[in-house]
Amino acid sequence: MGTSLEALLECVRERGGFAARQEAARAAHGVLPVLGAHLVGDDRTDLARLLPHQCGPLLADAEPASEPLTPEGFVEAVAERTGDDAGTARRAVTAVLQTIAETADDALLRRILTQLPPGHAGLFGRTEPS
């Protein structure tokens, strides 16, 4: 995948089975702030730098979360943010996070996963780090 916004949205659209790129953009706008709220330090800024410049602030400027979310809680937070049902929110979460997993190198992805509670690796299409 390229680092352009169009490439990112096309990847999210395909992964999420969304009919239009606008739905993929909505998914990214729902997922990236929730993810950003649960990452801190260099990992958050390093990931934001890998994203298209229009998406980086969604991740980097998110207010820090007050408590960690389970994977189910993560999906629920996205559903609340987007107004979607749980199934659509889960499709958005997995499409966006799997696209991020493809963009980040293994070391950064491992650091990101260690910041999240156990169980999130599956949302990224990965196995839990050991």
Descriptive report:
Helices cover 65% and strands 0% of the residues. By secondary structure, it is mainly alpha-helical. The mean pLDDT is 93. The longest helix has 18 residues, at 86-103. α1 (5-16) crosses α2, α2 (21-37) crosses α6 and α5 (71-82) packs across α6. The chain contains seven helices and no strands.
Strand-helix topology:
Layout: H1 5-16, H2 21-37, H3 41-50, H4 56-60, H5 71-82, H6 86-103, H7 106-115
Summarize the structure.
The protein is mainly alpha-helical and about 130 residues long.
Q: SS-based structural class?
A: mainly alpha
Contiguous uncertain segments of 5+ residues? none
Helix fraction, binned, reads 55-70%
Find the count of extended strands (DSSP E, 2+ residues). 0
Query: What string, H for helix and E for strand, traces the elements in order?
Result: HHHHHHH
Measured distance between first and last alpha carbons: 27 Å
The Cα radius of gyration reads: 13 Å
Q: How much is the average pLDDT? A: 93
SS field, number of helical segments: 7
Q: List the quaternary state of the chains.
A: single chain
Proportion of strand residues: under 5%
What does the overall shape look like?
globular
